[in-house]
């Protein structure tokens, strides 16, 4: 069994750990009643309202960039320093919340582009039909 900090266990419960570390904790939780009780105790204490600055930071995701910032990242419209931070946040920190946000933006962008292409095609078909009849 691996040794996990209280912060890691709470981050696991909030789904804020990278996938590999979360999987490691989950495997150990399945095999250890003591670890499950420890996590339950931590969650009960966190629900009592006594929050540390670290807990507030994690729960409100203060280090997570906004969707607009991630959109700028995708479009390449941000500065190099910010791009490096976002890459670090995504790849090194392994923020699953931001990874999901970025994946959603990519999906939305693909859907928007498809709708735009369809509208252009429909408009072009109408113009081509008009020009084929000699009316344009």
- Helicity level: over 70%
Give the strand tally.
0
In percent, how much strand structure appears in the residues?
under 5%
N-to-C order of helices and strands: HHHHHHH
Radius of gyration: 24 Å
Model description:
- The protein has 136 residues and is mostly helical.
- It has a domain of 62 residues.
- The protein is 75% helix and 0% strand.
- It is built from 7 helices and no strands.
- Helix 2 packs across helix 3.
- The longest helix has 37 residues.
- The protein is elongated and about 80 Å long.
- The N and C termini lie far apart (76 Å).
- The mean pLDDT is 82.
Annotate the secondary structure layout:
Elements: H1 6-13, H2 19-31, H3 33-47, H4 53-59, H5 67-75, H6 80-92, H7 96-132
